[in-house]
Amino acid sequence: MVTFLGKDLELRIQGLMAADQEHVNLLKENRVYKGIALYAAATALLTLTATAVAPAAAAAPPGVGPPPLLNIKTATGSGCTLDTTGGWGEWDYRGFTVVYEDYKAQAGGDSRPADARRNCQLSLELVAGFVSYTYAVRRTTYSLDAELQRGAQAILKANYHFPGTPQGEMKTHRAMGPSSDEFRFIESVPTSELVWRPCGQRTELVINTELRVVNGTERDKVSSASMNYDYDAGGPRQTYELEVKPCP
Fold first, then answer.
1. What is the rounded distance in angstroms from the CA atom of residue 85 to the CA atom of residue 34?
2. Rounded to the nearest 5°, which phi and psi values hold at 45?
3. How far from each other are the two terminal CA atoms of the chain, in whole angstroms?
4. CB 133 within 8 A of CB 244
């Protein structure tokens, strides 16, 4: 699955006006790419030179051009499928974003016991620009919308790893009721603990998440937590900030 999207899409388009007009039209008309079959069309954007867009940040790999394609290869679990998962890479190679469309857990009221827990495992790769570079996730921001009754909890667990590297334990974050709000949880990785993608390989990044709702004292009322993103109105998104360096 390949997806491009961004709230500042029009600003990005303006920055491309010096580039081939055909590519600009392609970006305007296809705000979201879904399905690996569209990979070739999206890859046409890679012919734009780095000078056709705003100057890249100092941390970005030099001369790699436009943002990476985020290729979500697999999406399995009760909270995601390939059809309900998307994302986009950042223009300056500082990170990428993952969004879901059907990732919600709830408890209480008429909810079934199975509704209280949802999980997802993604396998993805960043395509283009990383041939001679490697990257590590240095900071993550997880967000969710929660409608929690008194005493209820929304529990988010997450981790990520490259196959062949230590997976690490699931980090746990909690939102407590009563509450009706968007919650954000930030994880930062010390420089000495960064786990780098193996050089010379098209290694995928595996992301695991689990969303659970625990009922409170008002069991007759529904408590829910959602990581669903609305492509028109916005909403919760999961962001992964990267550290990038040349391969030896």
1. 9
2. -65, -20
3. 31
4. yes
Q: Are 107 and 213 in contact (CB under 8 A)?
A: yes
Cα(222)–Cα(170) distance, integer angstroms: 26
What CATH class is the domain 72-246?
A: mainly beta
CA distance 213 to 107: 6
The C-alpha atoms of residue 142 and residue 95 are separated, in whole angstroms, by 14
Beta bridge partner(s), residue 84 = none
The per-residue pLDDT for range 115-160, each reduced to its tens digit, is 999 999 999 988 766 667 888 999 999 999 999 999 999 999 999 9
What does the block give as tokens for 232? 């028109």
User: Per-residue pLDDT tens for 153-195?
Assistant: 999 999 999 998 888 789 999 999 899 999 999 999 999 999 9
Give me 230's structure tokens: 């609305």
pTM confidence score: 0.74
